[in-house]
Amino acid sequence: MPYKIISHFAIIILTVSISSFVNTPVVFETTTGRIDFKSVAKLEIIKASSAELVGLIDIDKLNFSFSVNMRSFKGFNGALQQEHFYEKYIETDIYPVATYKGKIIEEPDLSKSGTYAVRTKGMFTLHGISQERIIKSEITVKDNKITIKSSFKVFLAEHNIPIPKVVNQKLANEIAVDVNAVLIPR
Amino acid sequence: MKKKLLTAGLFFFIGFSLSAQEVDLDKMLDDEMEKKKKSQVELAAATFKSTRIINGHSVESTQKGILDFRIQHRFGTLNQGAYEFFGLDNASMRIGFDYGLSDRLSIGIGRSTFGKQFDGFAKYRILWQSTGKKNMPISLTWVSSLMLQSLRNPDDGIKRNFSDRVFYAHQAIIARKFSPAFSLQLMPTMVHYNIVPTATVPNDLFAIGSAARVKLTNSIALMGEYYYQLPNNKLPGTTNSLALGVDIETGGHVFQLQFTNSTGMTERTFITETTGKWGDGDIHFGFNISRVFTIKKTKELPQQ
Fold first, then answer.
1. Range of A75's domain?
2. Which of A134, B13, B156, B165 has its CA 20 to 30 A from that of B148?
3. pLDDT at res. A79
4. With contacts defined as CB-CB under 8 Å, which chain B residues touch A165?
């Protein structure tokens, strides 16, 4: 009888440990991703950065979800310009965040080390306007970390952010965005 | 043995269904964003668009590294009639420079035609409305100013001291941005006179001001400002100051247009020495122009 109980337990422990092995992390996360953007217009170059990108990648389903607080962007060519960015262009009181949520089109095995050039497809939302975008990205998996690098363009007109006439020589419609983030298992 | 297998299978199934549970990335993201928000202090931006409501100070101080060149201009009163072109032939003005030493501390100097007066002030934001880690419902700014009248003494043989030309004002400005479109502030104020015309008038005159901003569009807002002089805190023949106007904002300028019964534009001259009455048409049309220059750039995030 005691032998039976022991074997019983052995099987239970074995199955639990197998199922917990299946349970290895599939979600990777960052809360300190970096975003740099740059507007190059005739009379002025405007740059700003945030190091508060929050993002998650599910390496099993290959979908992802990223968000950044627009008030975390710092830099600009002066305090007033920064205030205008928050108040007049992005309207952070109404639209506090920008998000990008979607799926990786290719099917890289992100549980294996390596560098993968992929395309991502998802909804990019800024200033309350969502656009379906395909954005290229470079994903590097190494030491149980996922590093993503991505460069893309945001067009202000697509997000209903008008450029007033008085600043149309100072603010470009095309904003170059760089994203760099390191995600760790959640 | 069969029973054993069954148990094992059951446990395996439970374990598997736990691990295969739907991963809701969007919910995780919302949770993380919420967590981040709660761990940070988010200061209310632009309770007022300018450091002045119309005549008096707003709770905002000039941002760090910004030099603000300001021209405040009031025409004569509308009731001066057609001959004076409804006041446009006359003018009272103040030219000044404000500078932000830090995001909370600013200083300024100015010169007014009213009383040929020089003035200087220091302004400090003590509390800043915020949400997140620190929840602060209001902003509080302190302004102290000194005014020096340089108008020549009349040649009447009466001996006057230099100190008779000096005035001080202190204001506590309490403000709240209720929504992106509506901000309100209260300004308990004391103006000190080294010399007053009669013995019945105290040297320290108290008044309470209130001001509001209602945003109409992204660049246009309605502004109002009223100062109530407390009973027995009035110079003879003076009235309370009321000003109504619009703020128009373009690139680096804030352009303010207003109607007011006050001629002066410093605390002493408009809070305690306004003589115009709205009802009698003693209304000055006027404007404030502000042009900012960035002397020091804002800090960038360090490069990676």
1. 26-185
2. B156
3. 80
4. none
